[in-house]
Amino acid sequence: MSGVRLDAARAPFLADPAVRALFEALNADGEETRIVGGAVRNVLMGKAAGDIDFATTCLPEQAMLRVEMAGFKAVPTGIEHGTVTAVRDGRGFEITTLRADIATDGRHATVRFGRDWAEDAARRDFTINALACDSEGDVHDFHGGLADIETRTIRFIGDAETRIREDHLRALRFYRFFAWHGQGRPDADGIRATAKLKSGVNRLSAERVWSEMKKLLAAPDPARALLWMRQVGVLGEVLPETINWGIDAIPGIIAAEQALGWAPDPLLRLAAITPDDPARRAAMAARLKMANAEGARLTVQAMVAAIPPNTAETAVARLLYFGDVQAIRDRLRLALAAKRVKAAAGDTEAMGDAARFFTLLRFADTWTRPVFPVTGRDLKALGMIEGPEIGARLKELELCWVESGFRLTKAELLDRV
After folding, report:
1. Is residue 396 over pLDDT 80?
2. Which one, of 67, 69, 59, 61, lies nearest residue 87 by Cα?
3. What are the two backbone dihedrals, phi and then psi, of residue 309, each rounded to the nearest 5 degrees?
4. Most C-beta atoms within 10 A of its C-beta, which of 46, 69, 74, 136?
5. What pTM does this model have?
6. Do 167 and 213 sit in the same domain of this protein?
7. How many domains does the chain have?
């Protein structure tokens, strides 16, 4: 035990009826259960707890029986590795039996169940993730995690190289956690280990790599993490597209987000650090096995031509009507962020351009697609025969309507026919 005790004011989950019910069920008959990992780390850092995960001395089948008796639905989500999920009112709580790794291959681990809390903590990746909180709120710290929280240090438990060889995803997790929770310079042992073992990330599944990178890119400010990843060569392993393109646009994107109230957008940030080449973007999306919508967004955005800052709103409306709205908004955001960087450096022309891009983006963000008022039925009512001519005339009228700024009425359009 560390001498630190959480209360419900600091850690509201301690008063959560569902959490109390799980503690009561799992702690019966001499067993012991603690909340572990991110929830404890986050509240100690003054952040929202997030998911509540438990570790317990109960064996998996016993844990399932107990949570069912307590009125939860028990789901064997990873029972071969000791994990079950207790579900109530749409909320899920992961419960994992204490365990130790007996064999690892860089991607997967073979485990055995146990009752040793120190042994279970030792298998976790970073000191700040090895903290646990019991039902009374007492924090248990076996590896100096509390001290590392104070200094915002992301440090491997034990030998950094050994921990990465156990699971090469930890080379990426090191920088992801630094992006979210670290400050200053990353831990020197972690830097050296990730530099030495960077090629191991190529043994991981594409889905795991992209999931980790997407989380990293979603951090409030991942600029320093990306910089160190580039320095040691890890970034080039997972995103070779950035090698000759660079990550210099990231600080400008983050500054724009913070100043203009944009939500952190991992795909926009990724677009900023990869080439405007649809073929390369599509290949990257395929390699990382991104969701279809994610790959399409990156690819289509690269296909949109640069929009000059003096473009009229009517021209932007035309682009929005005939083009991909998200891609055009992305293009304007990237352009605005880039101009803001130059303006901050004293470029007076860029100041004006930034103001114009800001206006265009505000227009694009509030634009709604109007409905073309003429249909094929209207043309047939005027005596046109159904066929290709109607389609051609509809396109002609639609273009006239768009060029008018969507102002021509249905009657005015039909008069042209």
Report:
1. yes
2. 67
3. -65, -25
4. 74
5. 0.90
6. yes
7. 4
